[in-house]
Structure formats: structure tokens, C-alpha cells
Amino acid sequence: MRIVLDRPRCEGHGLCEEAAPRLMHLDDEGELVLDREEVDGPDAALARAAARVCPVAALRVA
Ligand code: SF4
């Protein structure tokens, strides 16, 4: 499965990072960086959790 970020939509809230810190982080300028894009197993569940908490629906798992 793949994490897809809609970058123009992302507002840098960072809730996704709290949900899945090993998959993504905010850089020094508040831009979200995906540390992994292909995920499976427990990481896919983490990625879906991150997508669920995003308040502007900027993340999805496809
Ligand atoms: S929670 Fe959503 S808006 Fe916030 S950094 Fe993550 S993807 Fe961007």
C-alpha cells in the first residue's frame, strides 16, 4: 500500500506525525516529509491512523 499526500491541502498540523512518527515527520519549516511511502502490515495500519486524524484530509492510503 502507498501513502499519498495532497501537499497543497496539508496545513502542517502534525497530528499525522503523532499518529505515525516512524512514517512521517514535519521538517524545520513545517513541511510534512514522508519517510516511507510504501507500507504494509502494521505500518499500513499506522498510515491509515495518520490519515484518519488529519483534520484536512490531506493523507490517504491507496
Ligand atoms: S495532519 Fe494533515 S495537515 Fe497536518 S501535517 Fe499531517 S497531513 Fe498535513
UniProtKB/TrEMBL annotation:
UniProt KW keywords: 3Fe-4S, Electron transport, Iron, Iron-sulfur, Metal-binding, Transport
Is-annotated flag, keyword Metal-binding?
yes
Q: Which InterPro entries match?
A: Fe-S_cluster_ET
Gene3D superfamilies attached here?
3.30.70.20
Keyword Electron transport recorded = yes
Cofactor dependence is on: [3Fe-4S] cluster
One Pfam family assigned to this protein is Fer4_15
Q: What is this protein called?
A: Ferredoxin
Source organism (scientific name): Streptomyces fuscus
